[in-house]
Amino acid sequence: MDFRFNYKRTVALNPGTRKPILDADTGKPLEVYHPVVPITVSSPRKKGPATEGLLDSGSDGIVIPRSIADYLELDLKPSGRPMRIADGRNVKRFVSRATLEIGRAGRYCDPIEVEVSVPAEGNPPILIGRAPVFELFIVTFVEAEKRFEMRPYRKS
Amino acid sequence: MSKSITIDDITGPEGHWIVVVKGKVVASSEDAKKMFELAEKYPRDETIVTRVLFPQASFF
Q1: What number of C-beta contacts closer than 8 Å exist between A and B?
Q2: Across the interface, do B47 and A12 touch by the CB < 8 Å criterion?
Q3: Disulfide: which of A7, A113, B19, B30 matches A33 by Cβ 3.0-4.6 Å?
Q4: Which A residues, 29 through 48, put their C-beta within 8 Å of a C-beta on chain B?
Q5: pTM of the shown model
């Protein structure tokens, strides 16, 4: 099943004032676009609500925050390999198994069994890294049009 | 056919997880678990929990 999604446009509010965060250069509300993919994450015990993950070709795998792992009641096992995060630090992590479904509005891929990494600290967004999603789909970013496409990979 | 529950535009407190029902934000919190639990109270096909990403930070 092919998917085509627009990047998500975000206008963030200052959590304290609830007013838009302004661009320092233009004075206008700061807006950014991200390639987020609609997903559902579930465990053998619980199915999460519809949510979204940030497509991140720079991440080795799938990352979810501890709070969502707790919601799903995932069995977390300490990993011997830490997670190297963007600022260069190594962070302890846990690993677990979960089920990922990609799609929305009645169009979903078959459920994918995935390993998820759960950092011991921090509150990241859900990151959809390369393994296994970028192995199962050909992901094309059309940055100029703020959209991306996902086509199932078939070995030729 | 299910209703479209994903929004392409989002406004909310920076870094918060928000619960969106029928296209409207009904709650927000830094705690994803709380928001996932709250989402259980709403119809599944009309509800999405998403994150307000940080506009002032880049992901590298």
Answers
A1: 118
A2: no
A3: A7
A4: 30-32, 34, 36, 38, 48
A5: 0.91
B31 contacts on A by Cβ (under 8 Å): 67
DSSP A5-46: EEPEEEEEEPTTT-SBPBPTTT-SBPEEEE-EEEEEEE-SS-
Q: Mean pLDDT for chain A?
A: 93
Q: Residues of B near A (CB-CB distance < 8 A)?
A: 1-16, 30-34, 36-37, 39-40, 44, 47-56, 59-60
Straight-line distance from the first to the last Cα atom of chain A, in angstroms, rounded to the nearest whole number: 17
Third-level CATH fold of A36-152:
Cathepsin D, subunit A; domain 1 (2.40.70)
Region A109-136: what's the mean pLDDT?
Answer: 95
> How high is the pLDDT of residue A45?
96
Q: List the end-to-end C-alpha distance of chain B, in Å, as a whole number.
A: 37
pLDDT at A88: 81
Look up the ipTM and state it: 0.92
